[in-house]
């Protein structure tokens, strides 16, 4: 039998706080979603000024990173590299900004961010994850 860590509300709160701080420091209006390893929502925060669709996209980025066990940037690179058929893949968004949370080599969740440029979304997500140490 395998065992692995899971995200508690304490860790989720730390991720949100650090991601929010990174976004606010840069004056970026974003939505931040945190999901578990199955892509199920644990938390969502839409900062002032972020378009409502940002909440949906952030959640889909986080879900895709969790169930795909990789950053969504890889999917975006695949599509940009000419593999357009991947756009029809079910349940996966091919937009950068979804980053898995990895503990002891296991994906335990993911963070998705939407609202600014793709690399800035990823920067905010990674800042949130970095708060876990």
TrEMBL record:
Pfam families: HbpS-like. Gene3D superfamilies: Haem-degrading domain (3.30.450.150). It comes from the Bacteria. PANTHER family: PROTEIN GLCG, SLR1406 PROTEIN. This is Heme-binding protein.
């Amino acid at each position: 039998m395998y065992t692995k860590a899971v995200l508690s509300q304490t860790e989720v709160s730390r991720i949100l706080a650090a991601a929010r701080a990174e976004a606010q420091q840069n004056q970026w209006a974003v939505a931040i979603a945190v999901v578990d390893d199955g892509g199920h929502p644990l938390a969502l925060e839409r900062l002032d000024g972020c378009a409502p669709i940002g909440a949906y996209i952030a959640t889909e980025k986080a879900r895709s990173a969790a169930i795909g066990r990789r950053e969504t940037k890889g999917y975006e690179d695949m599509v940009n590299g000419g593999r357009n058929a991947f756009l029809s893949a079910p349940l996966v968004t091919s937009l950068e900004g979804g980053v898995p949370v990895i503990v002891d080599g296991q994906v335990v969740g993911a963070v998705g961010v939407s609202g600014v440029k793709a690399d800035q979304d990823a920067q905010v997500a990674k800042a949130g994850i970095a708060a876990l140490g």
